[in-house]
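User: Predict the complex with protoporphyrin IX containing FE.
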Amino acid sequence: MTTASTPLDKWEMHPRHFWLRGIRPEAPIEYDPEVGMWHVYGYPETLEILSDPATYSSEVAARYVSPEQAAVAFDGNLTQADPPEHQKLRKLVGRTFTLKMVAELESRIAALTHELLDAIEGDTFDLAEALAYPLPVIVICDMLGIPREDRELLKEWADQSLMASTQLTTHQGDKAQEESLDTQAEAAMAMGFYILELVTRRRAEPQDDLLSRLVEAEVDGERLTDRQIVNFANLLISAGHITTTMLLGNTILCLDAFPDVDERVRKDRSLVPTLLEESLRYLSPLAAGYRVTTRDVEIAGVKVPEGDVLEVWFSAANRDARVFEDPDVFDPARTPNPQIGFGRGIHFCLGAPLARLEGRVAMNILFDRFPKLRVDPDDKPTFLTSPEFTGVWRLPIRVD
Ligand code: HEM
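Assistant: Here is the predicted structure with protoporphyrin IX containing FE placed in the model:
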Protein backbone atom coordinates (compact mmCIF):
# COMPACT_ATOMS: atom_id res chain seq x y z
CA MET A 1 0.00 0.00 0.00
CA THR A 2 1.47 3.38 -0.95
CA THR A 3 0.50 6.39 1.08
CA ALA A 4 0.92 10.07 0.39
CA SER A 5 -0.75 12.64 2.58
CA THR A 6 -2.83 15.24 0.76
CA PRO A 7 -3.95 18.72 1.82
CA LEU A 8 -7.50 17.38 2.04
CA ASP A 9 -6.54 15.12 4.96
CA LYS A 10 -7.43 17.89 7.41
CA TRP A 11 -11.11 17.27 6.66
CA GLU A 12 -13.03 14.20 7.67
CA MET A 13 -13.68 12.47 4.37
CA HIS A 14 -15.59 9.20 4.52
CA PRO A 15 -13.36 6.49 6.06
CA ARG A 16 -14.24 4.11 3.22
CA HIS A 17 -12.77 6.49 0.66
CA PHE A 18 -9.16 5.61 1.51
CA TRP A 19 -7.94 6.56 -2.00
CA LEU A 20 -8.80 10.20 -1.22
CA ARG A 21 -6.13 10.03 1.47
CA GLY A 22 -3.49 8.99 -1.08
CA ILE A 23 -3.69 5.26 -0.26
CA ARG A 24 -3.64 2.94 -3.28
CA PRO A 25 -5.88 -0.15 -3.35
CA GLU A 26 -4.00 -3.43 -3.08
CA ALA A 27 -5.90 -4.88 -6.05
CA PRO A 28 -8.31 -3.49 -8.67
CA ILE A 29 -11.11 -5.69 -7.28
CA GLU A 30 -11.72 -7.30 -3.89
CA TYR A 31 -14.52 -9.13 -2.13
CA ASP A 32 -15.92 -7.55 1.04
CA PRO A 33 -17.58 -10.17 3.25
CA GLU A 34 -18.91 -7.44 5.54
CA VAL A 35 -21.29 -6.15 2.87
CA GLY A 36 -21.35 -9.27 0.67
CA MET A 37 -20.22 -7.39 -2.45
CA TRP A 38 -17.19 -6.86 -4.63
CA HIS A 39 -15.47 -3.49 -4.56
CA VAL A 40 -14.11 -2.47 -7.96
CA TYR A 41 -11.40 0.17 -7.67
CA GLY A 42 -9.51 0.00 -10.99
CA TYR A 43 -10.16 2.26 -13.98
CA PRO A 44 -9.82 -0.31 -16.84
CA GLU A 45 -11.95 -2.78 -14.85
CA THR A 46 -14.61 -0.11 -14.27
CA LEU A 47 -14.72 0.75 -17.98
CA GLU A 48 -15.04 -2.93 -18.85
CA ILE A 49 -18.03 -3.22 -16.51
CA LEU A 50 -19.74 -0.02 -17.64
CA SER A 51 -19.37 -0.90 -21.31
CA ASP A 52 -20.95 -4.37 -21.06
CA PRO A 53 -24.52 -4.02 -19.70
CA ALA A 54 -25.42 -7.54 -20.89
CA THR A 55 -22.90 -9.02 -18.44
CA TYR A 56 -23.13 -6.32 -15.76
CA SER A 57 -26.78 -5.50 -15.22
CA SER A 58 -28.06 -2.30 -13.63
CA GLU A 59 -31.15 -4.01 -12.27
CA VAL A 60 -29.63 -4.19 -8.81
CA ALA A 61 -32.42 -2.74 -6.69
CA ALA A 62 -34.61 -5.77 -7.34
CA ARG A 63 -32.24 -7.70 -5.07
CA TYR A 64 -33.17 -5.54 -2.09
CA VAL A 65 -36.93 -5.19 -2.53
CA SER A 66 -39.55 -7.58 -3.86
CA PRO A 67 -39.87 -7.81 -7.67
CA GLU A 68 -43.40 -6.31 -7.35
CA GLN A 69 -42.05 -3.35 -5.40
CA ALA A 70 -39.19 -2.92 -7.87
CA ALA A 71 -41.63 -2.87 -10.80
CA VAL A 72 -43.54 -0.01 -9.17
CA ALA A 73 -40.60 1.94 -7.79
CA PHE A 74 -38.13 1.64 -10.65
CA ASP A 75 -40.22 1.52 -13.82
CA GLY A 76 -38.94 4.56 -15.74
CA ASN A 77 -35.85 4.93 -13.56
CA LEU A 78 -33.07 4.84 -16.16
CA THR A 79 -30.38 3.98 -13.65
CA GLN A 80 -32.10 0.67 -12.87
CA ALA A 81 -32.87 -0.38 -16.46
CA ASP A 82 -30.99 -2.62 -18.89
CA PRO A 83 -31.26 -2.76 -22.70
CA PRO A 84 -33.55 -2.90 -24.59
CA GLU A 85 -35.81 -1.16 -21.99
CA HIS A 86 -33.08 1.34 -21.13
CA GLN A 87 -32.55 2.35 -24.76
CA LYS A 88 -36.26 2.95 -25.25
CA LEU A 89 -36.57 5.06 -22.10
CA ARG A 90 -33.41 7.03 -22.75
CA LYS A 91 -34.57 7.86 -26.30
CA LEU A 92 -37.90 9.09 -24.96
CA VAL A 93 -36.49 11.24 -22.17
CA GLY A 94 -33.55 12.35 -24.33
CA ARG A 95 -36.11 14.02 -26.59
CA THR A 96 -37.15 16.24 -23.72
CA PHE A 97 -33.83 16.90 -21.99
CA THR A 98 -31.89 18.33 -24.92
CA LEU A 99 -28.53 20.10 -25.12
CA LYS A 100 -30.22 23.11 -26.72
CA MET A 101 -32.70 23.38 -23.87
CA VAL A 102 -29.88 23.24 -21.32
CA ALA A 103 -27.74 25.82 -23.18
CA GLU A 104 -30.69 28.24 -23.17
CA LEU A 105 -30.61 28.22 -19.36
CA GLU A 106 -27.26 30.02 -19.06
CA SER A 107 -28.56 33.54 -18.43
CA ARG A 108 -31.22 32.23 -16.02
CA ILE A 109 -28.56 30.33 -14.02
CA ALA A 110 -26.38 33.47 -13.89
CA ALA A 111 -29.28 35.65 -12.68
CA LEU A 112 -30.23 33.10 -10.06
CA THR A 113 -26.65 32.78 -8.81
CA HIS A 114 -26.46 36.57 -8.35
CA GLU A 115 -29.84 36.62 -6.63
CA LEU A 116 -28.79 33.92 -4.17
CA LEU A 117 -25.42 35.56 -3.47
CA ASP A 118 -27.08 38.98 -3.00
CA ALA A 119 -29.00 37.52 -0.07
CA ILE A 120 -25.81 36.69 1.87
CA GLU A 121 -25.11 38.85 4.89
CA GLY A 122 -21.72 39.21 6.57
CA ASP A 123 -18.26 37.82 5.80
CA THR A 124 -18.90 34.29 6.99
CA PHE A 125 -21.65 32.05 5.69
CA ASP A 126 -22.51 28.51 4.67
CA LEU A 127 -21.97 28.35 0.91
CA ALA A 128 -23.88 25.07 0.62
CA GLU A 129 -26.99 26.62 2.15
CA ALA A 130 -26.59 29.96 0.35
CA LEU A 131 -25.80 28.75 -3.16
CA ALA A 132 -24.64 25.20 -3.84
CA TYR A 133 -27.83 23.60 -2.52
CA PRO A 134 -30.60 25.94 -3.76
CA LEU A 135 -29.20 26.73 -7.22
CA PRO A 136 -29.54 23.27 -8.86
CA VAL A 137 -32.81 22.62 -7.03
CA ILE A 138 -34.44 25.79 -8.33
CA VAL A 139 -33.14 25.11 -11.85
CA ILE A 140 -34.49 21.55 -12.06
CA CYS A 141 -37.81 22.48 -10.42
CA ASP A 142 -38.26 25.37 -12.87
CA MET A 143 -37.42 23.06 -15.79
CA LEU A 144 -39.98 20.50 -14.67
CA GLY A 145 -42.62 23.14 -13.97
CA ILE A 146 -42.90 22.57 -10.22
CA PRO A 147 -44.58 25.51 -8.47
CA ARG A 148 -42.15 27.58 -6.40
CA GLU A 149 -44.24 27.39 -3.27
CA ASP A 150 -43.85 23.59 -3.22
CA ARG A 151 -40.06 23.55 -3.23
CA GLU A 152 -39.74 23.18 0.53
CA LEU A 153 -41.87 20.04 0.36
CA LEU A 154 -39.58 18.52 -2.25
CA LYS A 155 -36.51 19.49 -0.26
CA GLU A 156 -37.95 17.71 2.77
CA TRP A 157 -38.52 14.49 0.79
CA ALA A 158 -35.16 14.68 -0.95
CA ASP A 159 -33.33 15.31 2.35
CA GLN A 160 -35.22 12.49 4.05
CA SER A 161 -34.11 10.08 1.36
CA LEU A 162 -30.56 11.39 1.34
CA MET A 163 -30.03 11.23 5.08
CA ALA A 164 -31.34 7.65 5.15
CA SER A 165 -28.78 6.52 2.59
CA THR A 166 -26.23 4.06 4.05
CA GLN A 167 -23.73 1.50 2.76
CA LEU A 168 -25.72 -1.20 0.94
CA THR A 169 -25.22 -4.82 1.88
CA THR A 170 -26.48 -8.01 0.24
CA HIS A 171 -27.00 -9.64 3.66
CA GLN A 172 -30.63 -10.45 4.31
CA GLY A 173 -32.26 -9.03 7.43
CA ASP A 174 -29.82 -6.13 7.89
CA LYS A 175 -31.90 -3.87 10.17
CA ALA A 176 -30.17 -0.57 9.31
CA GLN A 177 -30.56 -1.26 5.62
CA GLU A 178 -34.23 -2.23 5.92
CA GLU A 179 -34.96 0.97 7.83
CA SER A 180 -33.02 3.12 5.39
CA LEU A 181 -34.77 1.56 2.37
CA ASP A 182 -38.16 1.99 4.04
CA THR A 183 -37.48 5.66 4.72
CA GLN A 184 -36.30 6.18 1.15
CA ALA A 185 -39.35 4.36 -0.22
CA GLU A 186 -41.69 6.48 1.91
CA ALA A 187 -40.06 9.70 0.71
CA ALA A 188 -40.14 8.51 -2.92
CA MET A 189 -43.79 7.55 -2.58
CA ALA A 190 -44.79 10.92 -1.12
CA MET A 191 -42.92 12.70 -3.89
CA GLY A 192 -44.46 10.29 -6.43
CA PHE A 193 -48.04 11.13 -5.43
CA TYR A 194 -47.24 14.81 -5.59
CA ILE A 195 -45.72 14.52 -9.10
CA LEU A 196 -48.57 12.31 -10.31
CA GLU A 197 -50.99 15.09 -9.57
CA LEU A 198 -48.91 17.51 -11.64
CA VAL A 199 -48.68 14.97 -14.49
CA THR A 200 -52.46 14.54 -14.50
CA ARG A 201 -52.87 18.31 -14.74
CA ARG A 202 -50.35 18.49 -17.61
CA ARG A 203 -52.22 15.80 -19.54
CA ALA A 204 -55.35 17.95 -19.34
CA GLU A 205 -53.59 21.25 -19.91
CA PRO A 206 -49.99 21.14 -21.26
CA GLN A 207 -47.60 23.95 -20.28
CA ASP A 208 -44.19 25.00 -21.56
CA ASP A 209 -42.23 22.73 -19.21
CA LEU A 210 -40.40 19.41 -19.02
CA LEU A 211 -43.28 17.53 -17.39
CA SER A 212 -45.57 18.46 -20.31
CA ARG A 213 -42.89 17.38 -22.79
CA LEU A 214 -42.52 14.06 -20.98
CA VAL A 215 -46.28 13.56 -21.22
CA GLU A 216 -46.19 14.25 -24.96
CA ALA A 217 -42.87 12.50 -25.85
CA GLU A 218 -43.28 9.71 -28.37
CA VAL A 219 -40.82 7.30 -30.03
CA ASP A 220 -42.01 4.67 -32.55
CA GLY A 221 -45.60 5.21 -31.43
CA GLU A 222 -44.76 4.60 -27.77
CA ARG A 223 -45.28 7.04 -24.95
CA LEU A 224 -44.22 7.10 -21.30
CA THR A 225 -46.75 5.85 -18.78
CA ASP A 226 -47.69 7.99 -15.76
CA ARG A 227 -45.65 5.74 -13.52
CA GLN A 228 -42.58 6.09 -15.76
CA ILE A 229 -42.91 9.88 -15.84
CA VAL A 230 -43.27 10.00 -12.07
CA ASN A 231 -40.22 7.81 -11.48
CA PHE A 232 -38.14 9.69 -14.04
CA ALA A 233 -39.11 13.07 -12.57
CA ASN A 234 -38.29 11.66 -9.14
CA LEU A 235 -34.83 10.68 -10.40
CA LEU A 236 -34.25 14.13 -11.92
CA ILE A 237 -35.30 15.88 -8.71
CA SER A 238 -33.05 13.67 -6.57
CA ALA A 239 -30.11 14.04 -9.00
CA GLY A 240 -30.78 17.77 -9.32
CA HIS A 241 -30.92 18.15 -5.55
CA ILE A 242 -27.54 16.95 -4.62
CA THR A 243 -25.01 16.19 -7.34
CA THR A 244 -24.25 19.68 -8.64
CA THR A 245 -24.31 20.86 -5.03
CA MET A 246 -21.45 18.47 -4.39
CA LEU A 247 -19.57 19.54 -7.52
CA LEU A 248 -19.61 23.21 -6.46
CA GLY A 249 -18.72 22.44 -2.84
CA ASN A 250 -15.92 20.05 -3.81
CA THR A 251 -14.43 22.56 -6.24
CA ILE A 252 -14.31 25.18 -3.48
CA LEU A 253 -12.67 22.64 -1.14
CA CYS A 254 -10.00 21.91 -3.76
CA LEU A 255 -9.31 25.61 -4.41
CA ASP A 256 -8.98 26.15 -0.68
CA ALA A 257 -6.59 23.21 -0.34
CA PHE A 258 -4.50 24.30 -3.35
CA PRO A 259 -4.21 28.12 -3.24
CA ASP A 260 -1.77 28.15 -6.18
CA VAL A 261 -4.49 26.59 -8.35
CA ASP A 262 -6.98 29.18 -7.09
CA GLU A 263 -4.63 31.97 -8.14
CA ARG A 264 -3.92 30.39 -11.52
CA VAL A 265 -7.59 29.89 -12.45
CA ARG A 266 -8.58 33.36 -11.28
CA LYS A 267 -5.91 34.76 -13.62
CA ASP A 268 -6.93 32.55 -16.53
CA ARG A 269 -10.68 31.93 -16.55
CA SER A 270 -10.43 29.78 -19.67
CA LEU A 271 -9.35 27.09 -17.19
CA VAL A 272 -12.74 26.99 -15.41
CA PRO A 273 -14.14 24.09 -17.52
CA THR A 274 -11.02 21.95 -17.02
CA LEU A 275 -10.95 22.93 -13.33
CA LEU A 276 -14.42 21.40 -13.02
CA GLU A 277 -13.33 18.23 -14.85
CA GLU A 278 -10.40 17.90 -12.44
CA SER A 279 -12.71 18.49 -9.49
CA LEU A 280 -14.98 15.67 -10.78
CA ARG A 281 -11.91 13.42 -10.95
CA TYR A 282 -10.31 14.44 -7.67
CA LEU A 283 -13.48 14.41 -5.54
CA SER A 284 -16.09 12.54 -7.57
CA PRO A 285 -19.52 13.51 -6.17
CA LEU A 286 -21.20 10.22 -7.04
CA ALA A 287 -18.51 7.99 -5.59
CA ALA A 288 -19.98 4.64 -6.62
CA GLY A 289 -22.57 2.82 -8.70
CA TYR A 290 -23.79 -0.78 -8.53
CA ARG A 291 -24.01 -3.62 -11.05
CA VAL A 292 -24.94 -7.30 -10.77
CA THR A 293 -23.28 -10.04 -12.85
CA THR A 294 -25.53 -11.98 -15.24
CA ARG A 295 -22.99 -14.83 -15.68
CA ASP A 296 -19.74 -16.08 -14.15
CA VAL A 297 -16.98 -13.64 -15.09
CA GLU A 298 -13.32 -12.94 -14.52
CA ILE A 299 -12.28 -9.40 -13.64
CA ALA A 300 -8.54 -8.63 -13.39
CA GLY A 301 -7.91 -12.37 -13.00
CA VAL A 302 -10.48 -12.72 -10.18
CA LYS A 303 -13.45 -15.06 -10.65
CA VAL A 304 -16.81 -13.45 -9.83
CA PRO A 305 -19.86 -15.72 -9.85
CA GLU A 306 -23.17 -14.97 -11.58
CA GLY A 307 -25.60 -12.94 -9.45
CA ASP A 308 -22.95 -11.17 -7.36
CA VAL A 309 -23.15 -7.43 -6.75
CA LEU A 310 -20.31 -5.12 -7.68
CA GLU A 311 -19.85 -1.73 -6.05
CA VAL A 312 -18.06 0.16 -8.79
CA TRP A 313 -16.06 3.04 -7.30
CA PHE A 314 -15.92 5.79 -9.94
CA SER A 315 -14.08 7.87 -7.38
CA ALA A 316 -11.29 5.30 -6.87
CA ALA A 317 -10.97 4.62 -10.62
CA ASN A 318 -10.43 8.37 -11.04
CA ARG A 319 -7.26 8.02 -8.91
CA ASP A 320 -5.89 5.00 -10.83
CA ALA A 321 -2.17 5.65 -11.45
CA ARG A 322 -2.29 3.36 -14.50
CA VAL A 323 -4.38 6.04 -16.24
CA PHE A 324 -3.75 9.34 -14.42
CA GLU A 325 -0.19 10.53 -13.97
CA ASP A 326 0.35 11.74 -10.39
CA PRO A 327 -3.27 11.02 -9.49
CA ASP A 328 -3.08 12.85 -6.16
CA VAL A 329 -1.93 16.08 -7.82
CA PHE A 330 -4.78 18.51 -8.48
CA ASP A 331 -4.08 19.92 -11.95
CA PRO A 332 -6.73 22.30 -13.36
CA ALA A 333 -5.26 21.88 -16.86
CA ARG A 334 -4.85 18.09 -16.77
CA THR A 335 -4.69 16.75 -20.34
CA PRO A 336 -5.95 14.25 -21.14
CA ASN A 337 -8.45 13.89 -18.33
CA PRO A 338 -10.72 10.93 -19.08
CA GLN A 339 -12.38 11.24 -15.65
CA ILE A 340 -15.47 9.11 -15.13
CA GLY A 341 -17.28 11.20 -12.53
CA PHE A 342 -20.34 11.18 -14.82
CA GLY A 343 -19.99 7.45 -15.47
CA ARG A 344 -19.50 5.93 -18.94
CA GLY A 345 -21.40 3.90 -21.50
CA ILE A 346 -25.16 3.72 -21.87
CA HIS A 347 -25.84 5.13 -18.39
CA PHE A 348 -23.57 8.18 -18.88
CA CYS A 349 -25.11 11.00 -16.84
CA LEU A 350 -28.02 12.59 -18.65
CA GLY A 351 -27.59 15.75 -16.57
CA ALA A 352 -23.86 16.22 -17.34
CA PRO A 353 -24.34 19.23 -19.69
CA LEU A 354 -26.57 20.90 -17.09
CA ALA A 355 -24.17 20.19 -14.21
CA ARG A 356 -21.22 21.47 -16.24
CA LEU A 357 -23.11 24.64 -17.18
CA GLU A 358 -24.23 25.31 -13.59
CA GLY A 359 -20.68 24.68 -12.37
CA ARG A 360 -19.07 26.98 -14.93
CA VAL A 361 -21.53 29.86 -14.46
CA ALA A 362 -21.50 29.67 -10.64
CA MET A 363 -17.70 29.38 -10.34
CA ASN A 364 -17.12 32.37 -12.63
CA ILE A 365 -19.57 34.48 -10.63
CA LEU A 366 -17.98 33.41 -7.34
CA PHE A 367 -14.54 34.42 -8.70
CA ASP A 368 -15.98 37.77 -9.85
CA ARG A 369 -17.70 38.60 -6.59
CA PHE A 370 -15.23 37.27 -4.03
CA PRO A 371 -11.55 38.05 -4.60
CA LYS A 372 -10.84 35.84 -1.57
CA LEU A 373 -12.98 32.82 -0.77
CA ARG A 374 -11.67 30.53 1.95
CA VAL A 375 -13.08 27.71 4.02
CA ASP A 376 -13.57 29.38 7.42
CA PRO A 377 -10.43 28.44 9.43
CA ASP A 378 -12.48 28.63 12.66
CA ASP A 379 -15.15 26.27 11.46
CA LYS A 380 -15.24 22.93 9.63
CA PRO A 381 -17.14 21.59 6.63
CA THR A 382 -19.37 18.60 7.32
CA PHE A 383 -19.77 15.81 4.78
CA LEU A 384 -22.66 13.66 3.61
CA THR A 385 -22.55 10.44 5.56
CA SER A 386 -23.40 7.97 2.79
CA PRO A 387 -20.32 6.32 1.26
CA GLU A 388 -21.99 6.63 -2.14
CA PHE A 389 -21.36 10.37 -2.10
CA THR A 390 -18.42 12.68 -1.69
CA GLY A 391 -19.71 16.10 -0.87
CA VAL A 392 -20.31 18.71 1.76
CA TRP A 393 -23.49 19.15 3.71
CA ARG A 394 -22.24 22.39 5.24
CA LEU A 395 -19.45 24.56 3.85
CA PRO A 396 -18.51 27.46 6.15
CA ILE A 397 -16.82 30.19 4.14
CA ARG A 398 -14.98 33.38 4.99
CA VAL A 399 -14.66 36.09 2.35
CA ASP A 400 -12.67 38.83 4.10
C1 HEM B 1 -26.48 9.09 -14.23
C2 HEM B 1 -23.06 11.58 -11.84
C3 HEM B 1 -25.73 15.63 -12.21
C4 HEM B 1 -29.35 13.02 -14.03
C5 HEM B 1 -25.31 9.43 -13.59
C6 HEM B 1 -24.18 8.54 -13.39
C7 HEM B 1 -23.23 9.24 -12.73
C8 HEM B 1 -23.74 10.58 -12.50
C9 HEM B 1 -21.88 8.73 -12.26
C10 HEM B 1 -24.07 7.09 -13.88
C11 HEM B 1 -24.44 6.10 -12.81
C12 HEM B 1 -24.21 4.66 -13.22
O1 HEM B 1 -23.72 4.37 -14.33
O2 HEM B 1 -24.50 3.80 -12.40
C13 HEM B 1 -23.49 12.89 -11.76
C14 HEM B 1 -22.70 13.98 -11.22
C15 HEM B 1 -23.44 15.12 -11.35
C16 HEM B 1 -24.71 14.74 -11.94
C17 HEM B 1 -21.30 13.82 -10.65
C18 HEM B 1 -23.11 16.54 -10.98
C19 HEM B 1 -21.92 17.01 -10.83
C20 HEM B 1 -26.95 15.28 -12.71
C21 HEM B 1 -28.05 16.19 -12.92
C22 HEM B 1 -29.07 15.44 -13.43
C23 HEM B 1 -28.60 14.07 -13.55
C24 HEM B 1 -28.01 17.69 -12.61
C25 HEM B 1 -30.44 15.86 -13.85
C26 HEM B 1 -31.06 16.88 -13.43
C27 HEM B 1 -28.87 11.74 -14.24
C28 HEM B 1 -29.67 10.67 -14.82
C29 HEM B 1 -28.84 9.54 -14.87
C30 HEM B 1 -27.56 9.94 -14.33
C31 HEM B 1 -31.12 10.76 -15.27
C32 HEM B 1 -29.21 8.14 -15.37
C33 HEM B 1 -28.77 7.95 -16.81
C34 HEM B 1 -28.97 6.54 -17.31
O3 HEM B 1 -29.03 5.60 -16.51
O4 HEM B 1 -29.12 6.38 -18.54
N1 HEM B 1 -25.01 10.66 -13.04
N2 HEM B 1 -24.70 13.39 -12.16
N3 HEM B 1 -27.32 14.01 -13.11
N4 HEM B 1 -27.61 11.27 -13.96
FE1 HEM B 1 -26.13 12.36 -13.17
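The longest strand covers residues 288-293.
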